[in-house]
């Protein structure tokens, strides 16, 4: 029996994802923005399968407004995001890096500031360098890579995976691990909302600027997307968003 070509099978999978998620094909006046269902505040507040707040919603709505479109947010598990983007089921995926989607080609300029940090509870000495973590379990996230720790520790990098940073904070509070990785934005938000145990000052692991991945099937161009991003950065809209969560 003759098999369907790979690109047809992938497209069929994408259509199945759309059907399962109750999502309709994008209209010409919409900007369909992908959001990982595993994302938590301050990046996303998801209740009942609906994106109700957070930076993903604010950024997606602001970009859509500058592009003259109505935002529509499509929530999917991380493993379904890439095929949906590649096959045109959505226009945009933001706050990612090319290393996380190595096969994807259409990337915006880097614009959204992030810092990855290591947190440690006061019952242990604060590490001065990543090398001091050798052999110690570190709270990490399922499905994510940490190349800085992999390079610094090699086989001595001991991961203790969890589905979210919130879980890792709870593990530290319960004494199950002494160290965990998260973004400074998450740390600042938790400190602001009081959802944080006592910790040492964080150790900076990596500083970078995230980007948006644009589907090759989108009706907006990369130049249009970058122009919209320039506007958000230039008029202070992006900085105002960030201040609300720090």
Topology:
Layout: H1 6-20, E1 30-36, E2 45-47, E3 50-53, H2 55-66, E4 70-76, H3 78-86, E5 92-96, E6 112-120, E7 137-141, H4 147-153, E8 158-162, H5 165-173, E9 179-183, H6 184-193, E10 203-214, H7 222-234, H8 237-243
Parallel strand pairs: 1-4, 1-5, 7-8, 7-9
Antiparallel strand pairs: 2-3, 5-10, 6-9, 6-10
Helix pairs in contact: 2-8
The percent range for helix content is 25-40%
- How much of the residues is beta strand, in percent? 25-35%
Distance between the termini: 58 Å
What is the helix/strand order? HEEEHEHEEEHEHEHEHH
Quickly count the helices: 8
Number of strands: 10
Q: How can the largest sheet be summarized?
A: 8 strands, mixed
Computed over alpha carbons, the radius of gyration is: 19 Å
**SSE class:** alpha/beta
Mean pLDDT: 89
Strand order, main sheet: write it out: 4-1-5-10-6-9-7-8
Shape: globular
The low-confidence parts are 1-15, 17-22
């Amino acid at each position: 029996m003759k098999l369907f070509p790979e690109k047809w099978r992938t497209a069929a999978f994408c259509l199945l994802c759309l059907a399962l998620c109750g999502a309709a094909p994008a209209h010409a006046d919409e900007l369909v923005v992908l959001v990982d269902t595993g994302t938590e505040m301050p990046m996303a507040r998801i209740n009942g399968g609906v994106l109700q707040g957070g930076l993903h919603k604010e950024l997606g709505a602001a970009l859509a407004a500058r592009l003259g479109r109505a935002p529509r947010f499509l929530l999917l598990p991380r493993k379904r995001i890439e095929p949906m983007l590649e096959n045109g089921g959505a226009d945009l995926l933001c706050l990612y890096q090319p290393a996380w989607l190595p096969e994807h080609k259409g990337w915006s300029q880097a614009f959204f500031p992030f810092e990855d940090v290591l947190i440690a509870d006061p019952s242990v000495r604060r590490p001065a360098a990543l090398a001091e973590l050798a052999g110690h379990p570190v709270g990490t996230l399922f499905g994510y890579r940490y190349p800085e720790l992999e390079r610094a520790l090699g086989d001595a990098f001991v991961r203790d995976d969890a589905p979210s940073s919130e879980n890792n904070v709870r593990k530290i509070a319960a004494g199950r691990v002494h160290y965990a990785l998260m973004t400074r934005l998450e740390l600042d938000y938790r400190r602001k909302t009081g959802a944080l145990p006592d910790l040492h000052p964080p150790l900076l692991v990596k500083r970078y600027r995230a980007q948006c991945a644009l589907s090759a099937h989108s009706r907006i161009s990369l130049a249009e997307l970058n122009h919209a991003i320039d506007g958000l950065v230039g008029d202070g809209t992006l900085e105002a968003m960030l201040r609300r969560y720090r």
